[in-house]
Amino acid sequence: xxxxxxxxxxxxxxRGKSQSRDERPTNKPDQTVTSGGSSKKQVLTPDLExxxxxxxxILNNCSDVVYREFVFAQNExxxxxxxxxxxxxxxxxxxDQIMRALALEVxxxxxxxxxxxxxxxxxxxxRGLCIHQINESAQLEDIIRSIxxxxxxxxxxxxxxxxxxKARGWEMRSITEPEAETTVRGPREAFVESLRVNTALIRxxxxxxxxxxxxxxxxxxxxxxxxxxxxxxxxxxxxxxxVKSRLERIExxxxxxxxxxxxxxEDSPWSFFPTINHSERPDxxxxxxxxxxxxxxxxxTPFVLSVPTLFVEFLQATEDYYHRFLFSSAIRLLRFLAMIxxxxxxxxxxxxxxxxxxxxxxxxLLSIAAQHESVPYPVIIEVLLMEVTFEILREAGxxxxxPIGQAVSIVGALVIGEAAVRAGLVAAATVIVVAGTGIASxxxxxxxxxxxRLLRFLxxxxxxxxxxxxxISGLAVIGIHLCTLRSFGVPYLSPLVPITGVxxxxxxxxxxxxxxxxxxxxxxxxxxxxxxxxxKPSPPPSRRKG
Amino acid sequence: MLEHGKIDGKQAIFLxxxxxxxxxxxxxxxxxxxxxxxxxxxxxxAATLAVLLIAWLxxxxxxxxPGKTLCEYAEEILGKTLGKIVCLLYIWLxxxxxxxxxxxxxxxxxxxxxxxxxxxxxxxxxxxxxxAYAVRNGLEVLCRFNQLFLPVTGLLAIVFFLxxxxxxxxxxxxxxxAGLLPIVKGTVMPTMLMGEIVLLAMxxxxxxxxxxxxxxxILSALFNGFVLTASTLEALLIFGPDLAAHWIFPTFNAVRxxxxxxxxxxxxxxxxxxxxxxxxxKVGVFYYVAVLGSAQCLNLKDxxxxxxxxxxxxxxxxxxxxGENIVDMIYYISQIxxxxxxxxxEVGIPLLLxxxxxxxxxxxxxx
Amino acid sequence: MRKKIAILLLLFFLSxxxxxxxxxxxxxxxxxxxxxxxxxxxDGLIRLSVQIASPGAFSxxxxxxxxxxxxxxxxxxxxxxxxxxxxxxxxxxxxxxxxWDHSIILVIGERMAKRGTEMxxxxxxxxxxxxxxxxLMVARGEARDILQAxxxxxxxxxxxxxxxxxxxxxxxxxxxxxxxxxxxxxxxxVVTGVEVQDFGEGRGPGQGENSTVQKKVELxxxxxxxxxxxxxxLDAHETxxxxxLKGEAKEGAVIVPSPGExxxxxxxxxxxxxxxxxxxYDGENLWFNVNIYVEGDMVEQQSRVDLAKPEQIKALxxxxxxxxxxxxxxxxxxxxxxxxxxxxxxxxxxHRKYRKEWRExxxxxxxxxxxxxxxxxxxxxxxxxxxxxxxxxxxxx
Lengths: 546, 367, 397
Known about the structure:
Chain A has 546 residues and is of the alpha+beta class. Chain A is built from 17 helices and twelve strands. Chain B is 75% helix and 1% strand. In chain B, helix 4 crosses helix 12 (307-320), helix 4 (80-113) packs antiparallel against helix 13 and helix 7 crosses helix 13. The chains are: A alpha+beta (546), B mainly alpha (367), C alpha/beta (397).
């Protein structure tokens, strides 16, 4: 692996930033394909044997590549060769629609007519194959990539052009229910690992010719397919250009998940806060696209990125838009509260217990003081102990196989919590606070809650140091930081700050659908209106009279 | 241009609220009640009118020189040397002195009221450090941060002030008890503190609609006046003129005695915590204009290198320039800062600049 | 650069952590004071007594594993020249940091109050930790005894007293309200009186033999202060009059003779009341018109007369006015003749109306007040008569 990367890096450094985009495809074979060191673009020769030898030498030791040579039914002198990767092709199609067609059925369709070697390629392309999509290429690099992507390559003797048949078909997970973003109401399908299936899932929701799916390949070694999806006419064109330029900048050996791309294109790499959101739900991504965002799909992962991302997105669940708005708004507020609890509750607890006892009612103060009679540690140590334990338990619960994971949570919740209190290690109130915080952190989107969980420790230290003043200073720094953040040029906190009045309908509350007239103003810049006026349902006039 | 950000009218008004209120809300009631007794709120209202004049003066001056801050057009009006001197006076004696005064009041209040055992420097360094972070990121971020928390704080304050049952309107009577003179005397201090909105002169060029400046100045002066009148009234209605004059921070004590339904009580540390956010912004704005003005005075391309040194100056000024204890501090505010700042920086120099500009015919569109 | 600054900041905060947290005091390291008492000893020293809660007795959930019954509070005292001095001596006896914020009551002993309450209140208003809304009271006797009393229904006497005051049956005052009266020239301060009494006969079951003599705390009238020194008391009856005149009689009942059946009483519970004081001054004569408005519900009737009639209700209202007038007149006379002090705030009312005259009268106001005439007019209304229309067995008409 290193061998591939090192020269690349050196090359990058020597060439500097001035390296042009056009060079890349030419350079690619240097690194990935040829080991011999010839730097010229390799093309096929008319000789089948030479071609096969060349391909075999490149795909040396690739035992999963299959070479099948046979003769053309119309002309026994004409040799053909099929090359494909076993397991990536649809065997039935390859056998029936390619092999059978070419080796047996061609004479039936064209009785008594010898096809010359020279016309063979054209004939095969036009009448011989029963494959829905074929390409032609003379470039060895294309051919190799096609083979490895699951296409079936047909070489015809005497022609320096190969026919690439899209007869892909491999074992893959079927579309299942979303695991990370479950809902009570809403579509029950989630993205899968196959890019094509994923684009199809989105296309099925948005049947507009304006839904554009632009393809891109990234990763020197993995050569991963990427798709940039947006709705022309809604999306801000500059945004699309920006996304593309950021993606094309990437030079990396491999991309195995959209997280790679996320970290390589985000605005503030040092920030605790995620400035790119991801989702595994086609309906959510479709909604994002309708608001003028750009989605980035990566082959091999069900998680689709969407940019730009606003802070409020993490408080919005897909389901909010399906339930009735009053309930959704209440849940939004609840989530907002949960976010504040996740960030501040342990810090507040420490500040109150170590500095501001007056905030507690006398009875509660005495009760908590009684619990702390036997606890030997300062409250910060106590909370840290429980918080770290809780984080370990949570991580254990995620990593372990599901049946054991549940056992872990029982052990954690009951045994450790109860026993720690009994043993006088921590006060019962501390356990309540830590558990409450943990539960609150489950309510908000996972990637935001992850950053809040980290920041919570900062807040805890500051609170232990300066009480509420420390807590609020920490919050101020976080607040200022949030104000500096942008996601693809859009202020992270908008529409809250700077206030965009018309977009407040979809922030801490969700306005009814008949009142959400506009797309986010700072995202969809030109085409903002999404809803006709006067859609609020009202009883028909006839009934109003009576 | 040193600052690339643009702010809108709402943000500018919010910013001016944060410039004046955080310290004024603490110091004003005690200061005026001592002289004007139960008519203190009338003093604040009169001061509001005076501040409207100051605001009008400064904004008219700024609007004659679109796109320029006070430091820049001072040079244009007075010539290079004199202009730079005026600019430096503003930076050192107004922005930095009043800014460090805010740091001092902020820290002293926290030490006196909340955490007496903590060294005062901890608070002054922390507030300047947090403000520095915002200042480094520019005016836009400062304004947004302000916009983020101010509505929450305002809402909280209103809820608390309204929920007091201890208020008795009779405590405001009789009106004009000691005649007009004490009321007039009482206007001086609030005029000076609210007059700090002359900082607008440094910010107007960065408004996205500079033609709104007049409206912004007037609205922020009115809002400030309203909130300060309300807080003075709050202190008077709860404590009456006799006791209100005894406290150093009557507003704080008012918050302390509030008890809602016998369980929402003793919440002053929460209120103070939110108030602290306002303190950050107040210090941040003074800090920012000092940094920006210095950069313009020194013809720098970027103001960021100045953030650290100016911060150090702010912290050291706050420790050494405002006396040793709280009595000194109050004395400095009422006896030195008030007349000096008001006469020289809030009225004197702007008026002079405007007159010279008119005489020399400098400056384009007069509004 | 930004990273460097962030790291510097972080280091600064972390070093602060190592250096020590200055104002930090852990909840388990504090002596939580519930009640405070200040007495003057025979030797002229100030004795500060505090009632410290022992948290073990307050733990929720009834964890019975703890050994035995812990007394809910510990009363400890120390003497010194000033209150702070006494507090320092106290700190030598209490193994934890003394924490004032939750002190519910501040009791001043009778002798101390005679010496001057200002000496006490100043400390508690100046230091930030004790709260301005502590209930202030003057003990008949020693303040320490109040703290040592063991009441029922509340674990400590301080809490019991706090609840008693919140019921608003008597005249109650928080320390800042006292400070306001003290600062004002138009009113003399009055402070809740409190005393200790034995439980007496009405002991609950199971408390008879082995318990030592339990004491209860009782609100008893108000202490009248001249400037800040105790000069006398008003008893419970007179306190009612004080409440009427101050316009604070929001709770309680008026007991009036039943119309038509002398010797039997009717109780009227107060629902709403307010008082208006209108001063009149013509340059020589000063008099006050006090208008009291009260609404109440009849809650009890001893007589057998049918009172559910308009004319009877009218009679009831007249009786009610008479009763209130009698009460207030008695209190007023005591204040004017015996103490010569304006404890009702008539001065403030006068100030509001005659601000010019007030300027020279404020310095000898109490004499002016003692000479002033007072007309009391009561407007009483009976709104409800409860669920009964007439008592059982009342003669049919």
